[in-house]
Please model this.
Amino acid sequence: MKFKLIALLTVIAFTFSSCGGEKKEAKPSKKQPVKKEVQKEEVKVDASKIDLMAPTLDNKGIGPIKNITLGDIDQGMVAKGKEVYKTNCTACHKFKKRYIGPALKGITGRRSPEWIMNMILNSDEMLKKDPVAKALITEYNAPMAQQQISVEEARSIVEYFRTKN
Amino acid sequence: MFRVIPVFSQDPEKGYGYSEETKPMLNTSHGFVPWGDSHHPDISQTEGTVDGRWVFINENNTPRIARISLKTFETEEIIEIPNSAGNHSSSFVTENSEYVVAGTRFSVPFPQRDMPIADMKGNFSGALSFLKIDPEHGHMNIEFQIKMPGFSYDLSHPGRGKSHGWFFFSTYNTEEANTLMEVNASQNDKDFIAAINWKKIEEYVKNGGGKMVPAKYAHNTWDDDTHTATSVMKKEVLVVEPKDVPGAIYFLPTAKSPHGCDVDPTGEYIIGNGKLAAAMTVHSFTKMLKAIEDKAFDGDAYGIPIIKFDAVNYGTLNQPGLGPLHTEFDTRGNGYTTFFISSEVVKWNIKDLKVIDRHPVYYSVGHLMIPGGNSRTPDDKYMVAMNKITKDRYLPTGPEVCQSAQLFDISGEKMELLLDFPTIGEPHYAAGISADVIKKNNPTKIYKLVDNKHPYGVKSEAETRVVRKGKEVHIYMSMIRSHFSPDNIEGVKVGDKVFFHVTNLEQDYDVPHGISMIGANTSELLIMPGRTTTFTWEPKEVGVWPFYCTDFCSALHQEMQGYVRVSPKGSNLPISFTLDGDIPGEEEE
Model:
């Protein structure tokens, strides 16, 4: 009998190289490369069909949340929402500054509470089907992470956001 | 292959045995041992059926038994076995997971002492260890060690059903030879299967029997709240002398140098696979009890009664093949035995002692496995044969070629070969269970951040920071798709010891992140969602040195990276750390 160490070393190194990542100018105009880049950015902004800062309050998004009625601000819920937000969202969002995802100041003035909750709870489907979510991922590249947040927690985040306008 | 679980050996892919948290798992009485030689996994049982809670597995070289969780698919506990050497006849569990056993393949001085090797005979002992399993958490404790004669204890299986309460160990080298074993340990025409009434010994121990003797062995446990292992060095073990518990231990003569020692699902038949014999020995549990009652003994070995062969033997299966090693069972009264020398699996009816079918395997099969094989209720649709030799079968890859395994359908009269595949390393033995049981167990998907009790963990980016403590620099770092926080660190100096305590803030399924640092004399880390793991780096040269994510995590995985600035030894540059130009979490409120 031959007994041997079962050496199970599976080292998988994935390497993605961004081939052709360097922007080669078609016709190297040595004089005004700066101008050209500015032009390029302008074209990109013009091409986007949705103004991400414009309110889309009629859009409830796609997901488990169909209808939310907002009452007076519930401070208990705000405190809960703040805590959940801090643990699960701040790695990608800030209020005043664009970060991995968009700045969230004034978010409840732009998006319906249903849309916000569906984006938190059902981001995979939203990013595939909802026009606003699709425009957001085009702009920000990083998909919104699923953080295993409950409906109640998502609702409390909305309440917290109402205090951040 | 779905998952490779590191147990006794370091695994650089997962950082197991390299990270500060997992290093204690590989601690032993001999210090840190980076590898192991595992042989026999066995799944925990409830009422004679595999329940899918834990897998136990033995380590041969530095005798240990480990427990793997089938919720997290990680090693949760490793206990060293003192007074043993070559922990081979392990790690089989009883039908309600009362005990997992360990038996020594080498007899050794017990306790170890300085003595001439040639004086072995009569002066060495063989430890059989019974480890009690805590029914709720699975924690193991060496309840007692039986100090047996100095034979070699090869394999073992528990009684079940009617024989529950007994354990059977095959022995070889009853000659007690200490050199040229392949000749000198093959002299006796029969060796023994040792039958141990563990319930009787358990009772004896409960009533204060046995003697606590000094011993040194490590007990390592993993804590899923702190994500950290602890190693405790134990100092004594309870030893039972066979002569003190009369009626608890018997020897059953078995032809010749038996290897496998297998018990059928009813618990009636105990099968010795005599690897040097032309016949297989089938003992009867019922006859054994009667023989004990009648005192049908043929002398004794070191005071342990030897039952007369004819009084315990049910029958023999003559000339079934060459070199029988192991037998597993279906629920229809058949045994399936591997034959190493004649390279085949033979299906035979136990009651009739008749061969039903035989199938060649390629080549030199060792163990075979039927899911639930060591239980009252084998799941007997499939059988896997594990082969040691594949010469001339696959691509020649230098002097060493792959081993292989073969999957058979055993639901019909004839065994049918379904699949034949090369394996990594020697496929020694396997444990099988229905996938439905594992799925019902609801395996862990993420570790909840709110439950993270790692002393260096962070719950959000706002808590990430870098702290200097003399020459130690502790980086409380976080990771999420796809950046580290902080990712620019300055103020580290040559001669510092830098601890990267890295928390994966993801709370999504299947999103681990990795981290590696240029020049760190350890492995990368692979960190599951919600977990914190630590590696150390001792920068030796001035410069700006990068680290990056090693687990493909998103479209921006290639951008998941950062820098540490290393200044000269005497530098006054204070520690600073930023992400996107800010101190992490600074901007908010």
Notes: Helices of chain B lie at 181-184, 198-206, 285-294, 309-312, 435-440. Chain B touches chain A through 53 residues (CB under 8 Å). The domain at 323-443 of chain B is CATH 2.130.10.10 (Methylamine Dehydrogenase; Chain H).
